[in-house]
Amino acid sequence: MSMQTNCPECGAVYEVDGDLGDRPLRCSGCGHQFFVEQNERSALIIWCVIVGLLCLLGGFLGGVLTTKTTQSEMRAKLAEAEKDKTEAKEVLETADQIVNVLGDVKSQINAAQTSLGKAWIVGSHAGTLETIANIRYNCTNILAQSSTTERKTMVVANLACTLVQLKALQNNLEGFEAEYSDTWLGLAMQPLLDAVRREQAWQNNIIGFCDGSNGDIKFIQPERQEHINSLMGADFQDAFQYVLYDWEDRPFSVSAAGD
Fold first, then answer.
1. Residues 127-184: pLDDT tens digits?
2. pTM of the predicted model as reported, rounded to 2 decimal places
3. Mean of the pLDDT values across residues 72-94?
4. Local confidence band at 256 (pLDDT 50, 70, 90 cut-offs)
5. How far is CA 57 from CA 45, 51, 62, 256, in A?
6. How far apart are CA 155 and CA 173, in angstroms?
7. SS3 letters across the chain
8. What angle do CA 156, 199, 162 make, to 5 degrees?
9. Bridge pairing between strands 25-26 and 33-34
10. How far apart are CA 155 and CA 209, in angstroms?
11. Which of 144, 233, 234, 243 counts the highest number of beta carbons within 10 A?
């Protein structure tokens, strides 16, 4: 390794090999002969050692910093992965809740459809009864205008047919009431049965007026017919109120996901 030295005679500066040992040097300027001092070689050696140590220290510190940076990145990636795992778990839990809610809604809809089907049966029975009542009302209007024998005979024939229909309707309602005796729909049959029995009794009285077995003219008077019809309307209202109660027994009590 080269080093600098000075001529002790003229001060000229030379760059020489540090491994000269004890070999003499001759100054080209003044011709003076001299040796490289040991302390200069020692200083050079110390300087080389210091530079080497600094290089080693720099490499070590660089490695430490790189290691710390790598560990920080790994910790950040692990934290991010844990966050993703937590979010995925929350998504799965939310999906399970949605599936449960949809299952509950489906059950509620099926139950509501069942109630609507039964309500349709109640409505059909009420419609049949109303049709029969309209026939009776028209017959009494005919008699109110003129109670001729011919008209009485026609009314009796018509009411004989409606009484058969009323008996069939009564049997259907009683069977429906027995089948659903422990529900609101079973209770809905009771006011309809009351209306059917009242209509049967009223039509029998009209037939009695026509054949002479019952001479009470009130059974064909228009105001009395209106009264009977209003009672039937109240029975229909009670019946459908029970249908509404049956519907309200199946509320859509659905919770939002996550609650």
1. 999 999 999 989 888 888 888 889 889 999 999 999 999 999 999 888 887 887 767 7
2. 0.53
3. 72
4. very low
5. 18, 10, 8, 63
6. 26
7. CEEEEECCCCCCEEEEECCCCCCCEECCCCCCEECCCHHHHHHHHHHHHHHHHHHHHHHHHHHHHHHHHHHHHHHHHHHHHHHHHHHHHHHHHHHHHHHHHHHHHHHHHHHHHHHHHHHHHHHHHHHHHHHHHHHHHHHHHHHHHCCCHHHHHHHHHHHHHHHHHHHHHHHHHHHHHHHCCCCHHHHHHHHHHHHHHHHHHHHHHHHHHHHCCCCCHHHHCHHHHHHHHHHHHHHHHHHHHHHHHHHHCCCCCCCCCCC
8. 40
9. antiparallel
10. 10
11. 243
pLDDT at 128: 93
Q: Which two tokens stand for residue 244?
A: 């509404």
- Residue 257 has a pLDDT of 38
Residues 55-80 as b/e (b if ≥16 CB within 10 A, e otherwise) read eeeeeeeeeeeeeeeeeeeeeeeeee
| Cβ atoms 193, 115 nearer than 8 A | no
Task: Give, in order, the Cα–Cα distances in Å from 178 to each of 49, 171, 173, 250, 257.
Answer: 111, 11, 9, 22, 41
For residue 150, the one-letter residue type is E
Query: In terms of Cα–Cα distance, which of 194, 216, 193, 192 is closest to 204?
Result: 216
**How far is residue 109's CA from residue 121's CA, in Å, rounded to a whole number?**
19
Residue with tokens 């009695």: 208
